[in-house]
Structures are given as C-alpha cells and as structure tokens.
Amino acid sequence: MTNLLELYVKLGGLVLVGFILGRKLPVTVPTRLGLFLFWVGVPISIVSFLRQSSLSGQIWIAPAIAYLAILLGAFLAWLAIKGQAYFRKTVPQAPTQASLILAAMLGNTGYLGFPITLAMVGKEYFAWALFYDLLGSFPGTYGLGVLLAARFGLGVQNHWQTAKAILINPALWSFGFGLLVREATIPTVVEFCLEKFAWCSVALSLVLIGMRLGLLKSWGSLPQAGMSLGIKMLLVPLILGSLLPLFGLTGSTAKVIILQMAMPPAFGTLVIAETFNLDRDLAVTALAAGAIVLLVTLPVWLWLF
C-alpha cells in the first residue's frame, strides 16, 4: 500500500505539473519535449535500464501476449459494435468504429507503462515491459492499427511513411544496442550518469503526459469511450491475466504483463485518428478518461495478481 501511495504521489504530482505547464506554456513546448524524449531521452533510458534488467528464457512470451491482448481487444470491440447495431439498431460511422476499436486494442505501454512498472515491480523485471512494448505494442500500433485506420478512415495510407515510422524509431535501435552492450564494462561514473538521466527521462515522460492532457479540450463521446475503456482496461487484462499461469508466468513477471495490458489507450490512437480522419473527439475522450480510470483500476490489478 505504501508503494502504491508513493506511486500516486509521484505519478499524480508529475502529471499535474505537466497539466499546469501545458496550459501555461506555448503549445510548441510539449512538441519539443516529445521530440527530445523520442530521439534522446527514451533511447538512452532503454540502454540504461536494460543493463539493470534480468533477461530470462521466457521473456519472448511478452510480445506474444501483447499481440494476443491487441487482437482480443479489437475482437471484443467489434463484437460490441455489432451488438450495438443489433440491439439499438444504430451503427456508428466507420471513422467512429475505427476509433472505438483502436482505443480498445492499443495501450500506453511506453510513456505510462514504463514508469509504473519501474515503480511497482522494479528494474530487475523492466526488460519484460520493454519487450512487451517495443516488440508487441509498437508494431501493433503502427502495423495493425494503421491498417485498420486506413480501412475505416478517410485518409490515404502511405505505405512508405508507415514503414519509415517503424524503421527509424530510435527506441527500437537503442533496444538492440542495449542488448549488445548489456554486459559491457563501463566506468562507474558513466553508469551513474546513465541511470540518473534515465530516471529524469521517466519523470519528463510523465510531465509530457500531463502537458498533452492539459491541451485536451473535448470530453464528448464519453459513453462510447467507456465501452472501449471497459474492454481495454478491464476485460482484456482479466481474461488474459487469468491465463498467464498456463504460459508459466507468475509472480513479478506476471505482474509486469498485467500492468502493461491494463494501461489506458495510447496517445498513438490520437495520432492515428488525426492522420486518417477518424473520430478525434472519441480518441481524445478515451485518452483523458483512461488516465483517470487507471487510478481506480491499478490497485485492483496489483491486489488480484
């Protein structure tokens, strides 16, 4: 309980600082901070935390479960849309359907999942969160997520831009580099600076989330967003979490996977919605409401698993 309260203080405090700054500072500041974290902060953090993580033989299961969570979320959202059409005789527009499915299948396993995993489980198991995000959630977002958006949206898919977004992602490159130099001996002072920089990047990522939330102005479409959040943050973690022992995952490793599965919708859903002209209001509402719902669901998952 103490760890959870400490997490809420740190998490809520940093997000609140970002929320206030987001309303006071020019809109270019969150963009520049996001670019800094994308190109410098997150990649260096990955290298640092990988050096302190334990890589077990089962760790490749993490991205496989991420794909299962993505596909299950998409399937349940599709069923919910079909059920709404059958019982209420109303069918959402195609862009709205796409936003509903995206919010149910894609989670914020990076900027939000990383700091929560580090705080609640520790650095030793952080590699599980990395594998889940970089080899599971990220390709799922810019692969299946973009394909879905192109199918339902009003935009035109640019295959080269999609491939480029994946190939030049510095987080993936630093992930590979971090695995190569994980056992390398470096001076103590360099190791110390790497770790401090990594923790500062984690804090800045939470501030950035607050900044982006501070810029969100729409709370419409809450009932529809609630459907996606119920699937993403309740049903999927509950169903797949109960099956984790079948994969040989228990204890801290299972807790990491549960926390990653239970994260609210990713900011990538809003990026995709804007790119392909999907339902932006629904995407914004799901992001904002999901961050609040997490405060309630987080202790539930820690208690259950």
Describe this structure in words.
Helices cover 77% and strands 0% of the residues. It has 13 helices and no strands. The model has no long low-confidence stretch (mean pLDDT 86). α1 runs antiparallel to α5 (113-120). The two termini are 14 Å apart. By secondary structure, the protein is mostly helical. The chain is globular, with a radius of gyration of 19 Å.
Task: Write a brief structural summary.
The protein has 305 residues and is mostly helical. It has 13 helices and no strands.
Spell out the blueprint of helices and strands:
Blueprint: H1 2-24, H2 28-51, H3 61-87, H4 94-105, H5 113-120, H6 126-152, H7 159-167, H8 170-180, H9 188-215, H10 222-243, H11 251-261, H12 268-275, H13 280-304
Number of helices: 13
Helix content: over 70%
Describe the sheet with the most strands: none
| Overall pLDDT metric | 86
Structural class: mainly alpha
Rg, please? 19 Å
Task: Report the count of strand segments.
Answer: 0
| Beta-strand fraction estimate | under 5%
Order of helices and strands: HHHHHHHHHHHHH
C-alpha end-to-end distance: 14 Å
- Which shape, going by the Cα principal axes? globular
Low-pLDDT runs of 5+ residues are none
